[in-house]
């Protein structure tokens, strides 16, 4: 009779970084293949957190080896599920003593199910087990009233079922890519005399927070990310992007703002980060509602693309919520195409009384 390999789910804080290295390396490989993203700086940061034994989450252990992990971070009364990833196990009948300790291939679950012969849990099953443990912990923590998650690496639908079962609302998001070859001309900056455009400066962080909260009022993205709903939250989002390189390495030379000449009010911005030597990523683009449909976003996108190209990038990516059709129209018109789809998930505790 065939037997099934058992996995143990243990507190992530028990593990030091080196035992997770094979999992993180395999995940990094997938980030490179699927999104052209160099995951090494994220891996380094994650390993520092793991070594501090303070990162909340779970590890999957099979046969003495860590084969998957999931973690979250807490922001006051909210938790953000940062990641989940598991290695595919080799089939049980090929697991002998000579194989133990070898590195399984870099395949994440994403709908790959074990065949009849493969009785070891698939990466997909391990990821779902890890997520279920996280849900159980987070949704039963009375101090938490919200959980958000954007698992960028995992194709839309891959874990949708268990998120929905746990009471999450899902929003499909698109990963769009533009190739930069052939766009060598300096873009024309055609602004009315009352406005000027300039590169990002450190002191823009505070007014940019105000602009983001104005630009995303009643916007679908402020349902997905509640930081957009307040100036303080938007500034926190910006801190993470600009100061802590929370989404690639922030690039000030590609990032630009548009300001009113007299009042110095910031009315539009584009922010970019390097996610690999070849790839730039637009982490934010927004225009104040009073200044929309005047071509500011289109101009900022071209300026950002031009500066990315001067830094040697050959492509730019960005993410956009599927229901944000105005922005999608703009990106498509600029030559962006969809390379990947993923899900954002939100759970909100129902208030009592
Ligand atoms: C999306 C956004 C950045 C567009 O800024 P903008 O300066 O108004 O855009 P532009 O004037 O450069 O518009 C360029 C094109 O985008 C499309 N577009 C922009 N706004 C649109 C709207 N409300 N309805 C339909 N199409 C729209 C059109 O194709 C437009 O070209 P056209 O004016 O020649 O028809 C702005 O609406 C915004 O800040 N929205 C909230 C934040 C956001 O969604 N950011 C993007 C997150 S991924």
Please write out the topology.
Blueprint: E1 7-11, H1 17-35, H2 40-51, E2 57-62, E3 65-75, E4 78-86, H3 123-139, E5 146-155, H4 160-165, E6 169-179, E7 195-199, H5 205-215, H6 221-224, H7 231-243, E8 249-260, E9 266-274, E10 279-287, H8 296-310, E11 315-321, H9 325-333, E12 337-348
Parallel strand pairs: 4-5, 10-11
Antiparallel strand pairs: 1-2, 2-3, 3-4, 5-12, 6-11, 6-12, 7-8, 8-9, 9-10
Structure at a glance:
The chain is of the alpha+beta class.
Main β-sheet description: 12 strands, mixed
Q: Which structural class do the helices and strands define?
A: alpha+beta
Give the strand line-up of the largest sheet: 1-2-3-4-5-12-6-11-10-9-8-7
Low-confidence sequence ranges: 91-118
CATH superfamily of the largest domain: Gcn5-related N-acetyltransferase (GNAT)
**Series of secondary-structure elements, N-terminal to C-terminal:** EHHEEEHEHEEHHHEEEHEHE
What is bound: which ligands?
A: coenzyme A
| Helical residues, percent | 25-40%
pLDDT averaged residue by residue: 89
Q: Write the CATH architecture name of the largest domain.
A: 3-Layer(aba) Sandwich
Q: How big is the Rg?
A: 22 Å
Strand fraction equals 25-35%
Ends apart, CA distance between termini: 54 Å
* Shape by Cα distribution: globular
Keywords:
Aminopeptidase, binds coenzyme A, 12-stranded mixed sheet, alpha+beta
Task: Explain what the structure shows.
By secondary structure, this protein is α+β, with helices and mostly antiparallel strands. The protein folds into 2 domains: 7-167, 3-Layer(aba) Sandwich (Aminopeptidase), CATH 3.40.630; 178-348, Aminopeptidase (3-Layer(aba) Sandwich). 30% of the residues lie in helices and 30% in strands. It is built from 9 helices and 12 strands. Strands 1-2-3-4-5-12-6-11-10-9-8-7 form a 12-stranded mixed β-sheet, with helices on both faces. Helix 1 (17-35) runs antiparallel to helix 2 and helix 5 crosses helix 7. The protein starts with 6 loop residues before the first strand and ends in a 5-residue tail after the last strand. The structure holds coenzyme A (COA). The site of coenzyme A has 20 residues, from strand 10, helix 8 and helix 9.
């Amino acid at each position: 009779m065939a037997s099934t390999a058992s996995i143990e789910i243990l507190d992530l804080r028990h593990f030091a970084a080196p035992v997770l290295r094979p999992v993180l390396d395999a995940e990094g490989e997938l980030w490179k293949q699927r999104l052209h993203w160099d995951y090494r700086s994220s891996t380094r940061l994650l390993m520092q957190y793991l070594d501090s034994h303070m990162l909340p989450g779970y590890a999957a252990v099979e046969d003495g080896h860590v084969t998957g992990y999931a973690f979250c971070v807490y922001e006051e009364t909210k938790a953000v599920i940062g990641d989940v990833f598991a290695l595919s196990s080799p089939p049980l009948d090929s697991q002998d003593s000579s194989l133990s300790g070898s590195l399984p291939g870099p395949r994440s679950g994403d709908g790959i199910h074990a065949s009849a012969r493969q009785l070891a849990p698939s990466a997909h099953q391990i990821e779902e087990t890890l997520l279920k443990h996280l849900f159980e912990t987070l949704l039963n923590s009375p101090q938490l009233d919200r959980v958000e998650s954007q698992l960028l690496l995992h194709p839309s639908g891959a874990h949708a079922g268990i998120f929905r079962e746990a009471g999450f609302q899902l929003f499909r998001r698109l990963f769009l890519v533009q190739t930069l070859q052939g766009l060598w001309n300096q873009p024309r900056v055609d602004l009315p005399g009352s406005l000027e455009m300039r590169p990002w400066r450190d002191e823009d962080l505070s007014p940019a927070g105000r602009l983001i909260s104005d630009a995303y009022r009643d916007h679908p993205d402020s349902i997905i990310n509640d930081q957009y709903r307040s100036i303080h939250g938007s500034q926190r989002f910006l801190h993470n992007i600009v100061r802590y390189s929370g989404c690639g390495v922030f690039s000030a030379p590609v990032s630009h703002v548009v300001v009113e000449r007299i009042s110095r009010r910031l009315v539009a911005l584009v922010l970019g980060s390097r996610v690999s030597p070849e790839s730039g990523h637009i982490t934010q683009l927004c225009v104040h509602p009073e200044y929309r449909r005047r071509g500011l976003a289109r101009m900022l996108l071209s300026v950002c693309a031009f500066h990315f190209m001067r830094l040697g990038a050959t492509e730019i990516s960005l993410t956009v919520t599927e229901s944000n059709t105005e922005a999608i129209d703009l990106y498509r018109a600029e030559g962006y195409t969809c390379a990947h789809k993923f899900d954002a998930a939100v759970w909100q505790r129902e208030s009592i009384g």
